[in-house]
Amino acid sequence: MKRGSIFELDGIPRLGEALPLALQHVVAMIVGCVTPAIIVAGAVGGGGLSSEDKVILIQAALVVAAVSTLIQLFPIGGRKTRFAIGSGLPMIMGVSFAYVPSMQAIAEGYGISTILGAQIVGGIVAVVMGLLVKQIRVFFPPLITGTVVFTIGLSLYPTAINYMAGGVGSENYGSWQNWLVAVFTLIVVTVLNHFGKGIWKLASILIGIIAGYLVSIPFGMVNFSSVGEAGVFQLPKIMHFGISFEISACVAIGILFAINSIQAIGDYSATTIGAMDRTPKDQELQSGIVAYGLTNVLGAFFGGLPTATYSQNVGIVTTTKVINRWVLGLAAVILGVAGIVPKFSAVLTTIPQCVLGGATVSVFASIAMTGMKLVASAEMDYRNSSIVGLAAALGMGVSQATAALATFPAWVTTIFGKSPVVLATLIAVLLNIILPKSRDEKKEEMQKKRDVEDRLKKDHLEFEK
Predict the structure, then answer these.
(1) Contacts of 405 by beta carbon, 8 Å cutoff, 6+ apart
(2) What is the pLDDT of residue 463?
(3) Burial, 170: exposed, middle or buried (Cβ in 10 Å; 0-12, 13-18, 19+)?
(4) How far apart are the C-alpha atoms of 403 and 420, rounded to whole Å?
């Protein structure tokens, strides 16, 4: 392999250049990758998972994220072939917060095995979405994906607040000590986000958690017993949690996979436009989304929760213009190594819930605001305002009114009543199809259709050459 620049897609750069840039990616995403696993582990009915099982779930999250990233970077079958599995673009994959509300509801009622079964179905949905990406993406313009992302952010707020208070069910829930540590953590994250530069800004959440963690120790909130019991080396266990299928869970997670498949197009586009001065090719989108589906199917057998493209790492790539696949590949290897060291995973389980709440509330706020930006990219006339308002109102309203669906079958509650995301998505898509568009929107839609057709012709001619 030839020596390459960090600003080129291919070629191996010097380790001295690659390592700090790779660590930057790891620092930016590792907390976001393991926190969903910690939240879901605590949501399992009967008091949550045991310390040992929680460690295994975190391990799986890191290892599956690493494998998924490597497949995206270095496609199976070759980057330029028609049947490649993986986009070949500089992307980082990790466990996604988008699935957390639905996973919490499923974990509470059915356990981890049902999440993993639904994930397999969701992965298959993503593969189909990838194969039909050109035909399906028309149903998910920025207005719809923005509404869904906004609803995801809103639905995660109660989780963050409950964590800041110490975690539902804990003996000291709502105590002043929990709130003191949580608010301190939030202040550190916010100050670094707005006044920090370089690594201080990029690693604001990680630094905030470390600061909050240190402050929580004198309050007796940290218990290291699980670290002492954990081993030094352990590969992820196949089928440790088992796999079971429940129709309502499969529907709920399957819809989220469909949405995330479209959302991934935004991350791929942001990466290529921001760092490579071009739009992603249809073949890259198709191969990337198919790989996203297949790696999630594979990950389910190892206990890895659903993964997706990581927008914060897209931000790093577009800011630094470092697109070298070996740099991001090194970041994936570091994640994988961390995942096979149970003591590292066990240390993560000792982080008090109030610290996690203080750190993640800003993440959830950022998710909601990202959705709002997408929504605002469309003209907010009466039609579009109705779509966003009704979808968010009914989605959030039904999930918050716990007894609203009490007389319906249990599967209706699991799909529509536990998480607002599914209902908001369906309402937004249906209203976008049914409500009449303005004359300007129709013109814009026709122009976009012509642009897509022109690009398809151009890609076909390039492929023929």
Answers:
(1) 398, 412, 413, 416, 417
(2) 41
(3) middle
(4) 14
Q: Nearest Cα to 152, choosing from 97, 113, 115, 114?
A: 97
**What HEC string does the chain produce?**
CCECCCCCCCCECCHHHHHHHHHHHHHHHHHHHHHHHHHHHHHCCCCCCCHHHHHHHHHHHHHHHHHHHHHHHCCECCCCCCCCECCCCCCCEEECHHHHHHHHHHHHHCCHHHHHHHHHHHHHHHHHHHHCHHHHHHHCCHHHHHHHHHHHHHHHHHHHHHHHCCCCCCCCCCCHHHHHHHHHHHHHHHHHHHHCCCHHHHCHHHHHHHHHHHHHHHHCCCCCHHHHHCCCCCCCCCCCCCCCCCHHHHHHHHHHHHHHHHHHHHHHHHHHHHHHCCCCCHHHHHHHHHHHHHHHHHHHHCCCCCEEECHHHHHHHHHHCCCCHHHHHHHHHHHHHHHCCHHHHHHHHCCCHHHHHHHHHHHHHHHHHHHHHHHHCCCCCHHHHHHHHHHHHHHHHHHHCCCCCCCCCHHHHHHHHCCHHHHHHHHHHHHHHHCCCCHHHHHHHHHHHHHHHHHHHHHHHHHHC
pLDDT (tens digit, 0 to 9) for every residue of the chain, 465 residues total? 556 677 778 888 888 888 888 887 887 778 778 889 988 998 887 677 888 888 899 899 999 999 999 999 999 987 767 778 998 999 999 998 888 888 988 998 899 999 999 999 999 999 999 998 878 777 778 888 788 878 877 877 887 888 888 877 777 888 899 999 999 999 998 998 888 887 687 677 778 888 998 999 998 888 777 777 777 788 888 999 999 999 989 998 998 898 888 778 877 877 887 788 887 888 888 999 999 999 999 999 999 999 998 877 777 787 678 889 998 999 999 889 888 988 887 887 788 888 888 887 887 787 788 788 888 888 888 888 999 999 989 888 887 776 777 788 877 777 777 677 778 888 988 999 898 876 666 666 666 666 655 655 555 445 444
CA distance 275 to 280: 11
Tokens read off for 68: 């998924």
Alpha carbons 371 and 245: distance in angstroms, whole number: 31
